[in-house]
Amino acid sequence: LAVHIQTSRALMVISLLLGFFGIIVSVVGMKCTKVGEEDPVTKSRIAVAGGVLFILSGLCTLAAVSLYATQVTYEFFRESTVPVNARYEFGSALFIGWGAASLTVLGGSLLCCSCPPRERRGQQYYRQSQPSTAREYV
């Protein structure tokens, strides 16, 4: 195969692996799961790490699809003996790839926004439980 196809294939495999690990890390970092630390600050940092993995995955996908699109454009406008109706054009897979890369980067960015504010990073949150007899009903 041509070099640009092998490079695109390698970038897509790397993107899939980063996305897979991003899913695992993000699930561990969600506030609704009981996996890992109970500290919300640590959970938020784990979620941010998952978001970074998703952003890297989206950038790898974007690079792979754009590299292939560049090669298709180069082949289309190159002076050759191939007739115009037999040349490659952008297919739906390229547009789906660009859309998937955009959504993956957007999702990773939203996960990165879950980082706690700087002034609350050192605080611990504890729920105070009171016995039911100590509560006053008004």
UniProtKB/TrEMBL annotation:
This protein's name: CLD19 protein
Q: What's the family?
A: Belongs to the claudin family.
The record's annotation in PANTHER family points to: CLAUDIN
What is the native source organism of this protein? Stercorarius parasiticus (Parasitic jaeger)
Q: Which GO terms describe its molecular function?
A: structural molecule activity
GO cellular component terms, semicolon-separated: bicellular tight junction; plasma membrane
Quick one: where is this thing mainly located? other
Checking InterPro entries in the record gives:
Claudin, PMP22/EMP/MP20/Claudin
Entry's localization field = Cell junction, Tight junction; Cell membrane
Gene name linked to the record? Cldn19_1
What keywords are annotated for this sequence in UniProt? Answer: Cell junction, Cell membrane, Membrane, Tight junction, Transmembrane, Transmembrane helix
Query: Has UniProt tagged this entry with the keyword Transmembrane helix?
Result: yes
Gene3D superfamilies, alphabetically?
A: 1.20.140.150
- List where the protein spans the membrane: 12-33, 45-70, 90-113
How does the record say this protein sits in the membrane?
Multi-pass membrane protein
The reply on keyword Zinc is no
